[in-house]
Design goal:
Length: 378
Amino acid sequence: MKKMLLLVSLLVIASMLLSACAPKATQPPVVTTAPTTAPTAAPTAAPIEAPTEVMFALGSPQNPIKVLFVPSVDVKATVSGGRVLADALNAATGLRFTVSVPTSYAATIEEICASSDDTMAFIPALPYAIASAQCDVDVAFKAVRYGYPVYWAEYIVARDSTYQTLADLQGTKWGYGDTASTSGYMVPFVELAAAGVTTGEQLVTGGHNQTVSAVYNGEVDFGTVFYSVPLDPDGKSIFSYDDYLAGKITSLDQYEIPAASIPNCAVSEDGKKLLCDGYRIMDARANIRVEAPDVIEKVRILAISQPVPNDTMSFGSDFPADVRSQIETALVAFSQTEAWATSVGSPDVYAWSGILPATDAEYDVVRAMVELTGYKLP
């Protein structure tokens, strides 16, 4: 009996132990959701703007107006005279200017076309006609030289040469400054072709002064340069523009000073004039007066061309109208001062005695030359 009770007790204890070790039934987890708010965008930095170029007003020290001159005469004299003009314009307008002389007529056109909104230029008729066609360069003024709004080309030869007419130049060596020079090349080219003259070797001298020197030194048989009417001892042209228009100037002798005065030419004390018994030489020969004071005795005029519209003062096509107006007003005022004679009015620069308003149509005659010859800048 005791054994039986012991066995039952052991079974009860074992049952309790198994019940304690058995895994308890698990309840499904209770999921609780916390209240939510709309997601907040992460803060972003303000956008960084790309740096922009600072624009300076035209005519300011940081953005000066470009003034170009062609290399038709001595470059140093041209730059010096150009600076006088720039200083005068600065005093009158408060605008700043920089002066430069590109290496050729073509380079001058290239620069004004490339910088049409900040560039003005003193350019002759042919380069103007080409520049206006290429990039709408616009003329403002034409030069006046001692009462003349036109000028001429002259054919020059050694005074002791046998050449008397253009026909005599057949097969000869021709010297000229630049193929883009109206008086130095373009007009003579057209006239020689019309006369049936075919030249021989050609020498591009680089400018009017150099062409005169080439004739003086015997490097070429003839040269072509600009002609301006000589002044008499009273400072007046030896013939008037009205007389020329009226057809009263009919012989070559009328374009030169009296023959008796030619041996008496000498440079003035200040070195600025070539005087012959008071007559003043105004054509390209006078530009080499210092190194060759006897140039008139050694070099004579063979022929004078048809008239050519005078040089221009022109602006790039996009030049601001208000700034242009200021400059035009200042230029007119400056042209009436004594200082003008040390700038573009100097015979060592362009010998402009004054300026007059000009229109684009006045240069149609030059455009006709270009069309006739098919000429293009090299």
